[in-house]
């Protein structure tokens, strides 16, 4: 559109708008349903994105950035969500023990590395490039979390084997890392619980920040805070149970808290799948929104 006073327009305020004039030269406006459908904004490269659609696509309030990076690169948010969901959803089922699953997700160690860590870190780098600070920090944090969690499950990292101090027990592994006896060490379980405590703390900070975004994102962080609290409590109780084998209540509480943590993360996953589906539909301007 031409502006009567082009000298008064700042370059950053220029918006690319679609011409909705008909063949007869008359403006079609917003008078009927078909024209409303035409006014749906498709991509940052062709039209101005309203704040609601921007938040749906990027999980962050719109912010000004220099250049046209959002028009140059694809939206990195969905690929990060894929890594998050394909790591968390199976883990949730493992924690709840569905169909005999268990082992704290050890069967999905490769998934944690190659989906959780790799895809989320790639997504975080993409968000950083296009100037979306909040998703960049969130995805980077959880990408590192999945890498750390997967590494703890890998015997060669010796995360739990380092807690085996009995020479006779250690001799069974002939000095090799990953002595499984360390998993029953009170010190290992209590130490790992503190990691989960502070993951819950950072999720609480993310929860406060997400109040600027949308209800589904808020739901994700509320349930994650609860999940990390439950799992931290489970490992603290396991430490008590391994320290005193007669402490049956601690072992029972640990089992219940693990299941509760899995239930909370399953709700997190459902909310995440909803966001992922909504972003993919919006990115294609799908008729169903």
Structural notes for this entry:
It is built from 10 helices and no strands. With 289 residues, it is an all-alpha fold.
Outline of the structure:
This protein has about 290 residues and is mainly α. It is built from ten helices and no strands. Helix 4 runs antiparallel to helix 10.
**Helical percentage:** 55-70%
Silhouette: elongated
Secondary structure class reads mainly alpha
**SSE sequence, one letter per element:** HHHHHHHHHH
Number of helices: 10
**What portion of the residues fall into strands of 2 or more residues?**
under 5%
CA-atom Rg in angstroms: 25 Å
Separation of the first and last Cα atoms = 29 Å
The poorly predicted ranges are 1-31, 37-51
> How many strand units?
0
Could you report the average pLDDT, rounded to the nearest whole number? 81
Largest sheet entry: none
What features would you highlight for this structure?
single chain, 289 residues, mainly alpha, elongated, disordered N terminus
Mind sketching the topology for me?
Elements lengths: L32 H6 L12 H8 L10 H4 L4 H20 L12 H21 L3 H21 L13 H5 L14 H25 L4 H29 L4 H36 L6
């Amino acid at each position: 559109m031409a502006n009567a006073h082009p000298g008064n327009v700042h370059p950053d305020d220029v918006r690319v708008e679609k011409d909705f004039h008909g063949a007869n030269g008359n403006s079609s406006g917003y008078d009927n349903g078909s024209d409303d459908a035409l006014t749906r904004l498709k991509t940052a490269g062709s039209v101005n994105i309203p704040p609601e659609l921007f938040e749906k696509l990027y999980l962050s309030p719109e912010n000004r950035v220099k250049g046209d990076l959002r028009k140059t690169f694809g939206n990195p948010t969905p690929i990060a969500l894929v890594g998050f969901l394909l790591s968390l959803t199976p883990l949730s089922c493992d924690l709840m023990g569905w169909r005999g699953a268990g082992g704290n997700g050890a069967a999905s160690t490769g998934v944690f590395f190659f989906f959780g860590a790799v895809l989320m870190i790639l997504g975080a780098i993409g968000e950083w490039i296009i100037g979306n600070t909040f998703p960049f920090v969130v995805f980077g944090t959880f990408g590192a979390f999945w890498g750390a969690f997967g590494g703890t499950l890998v015997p060669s990292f010796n995360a739990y084997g380092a807690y085996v101090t009995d020479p006779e027990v250690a001799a069974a592994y002939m000095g090799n890392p990953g002595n499984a006896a360390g998993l029953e060490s009170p010190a290992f379980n209590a130490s790992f619980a503190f990691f989960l405590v502070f993951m819950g703390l950072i999720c609480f900070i993310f929860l406060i920040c997400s109040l600027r975004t949308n209800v589904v994102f808020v739901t994700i962080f509320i349930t994650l805070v609860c999940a990390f609290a439950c799992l931290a409590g489970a490992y603290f109780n396991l430490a008590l149970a391994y320290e005193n084998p007669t402490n049956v209540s601690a072992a029972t509480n640990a089992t219940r808290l693990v299941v509760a943590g899995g239930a909370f993360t399953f709700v997190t996953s459902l909310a995440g799948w909803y966001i992922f589906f909504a972003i993919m539909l919006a990115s294609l301007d799908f008729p169903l929104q």
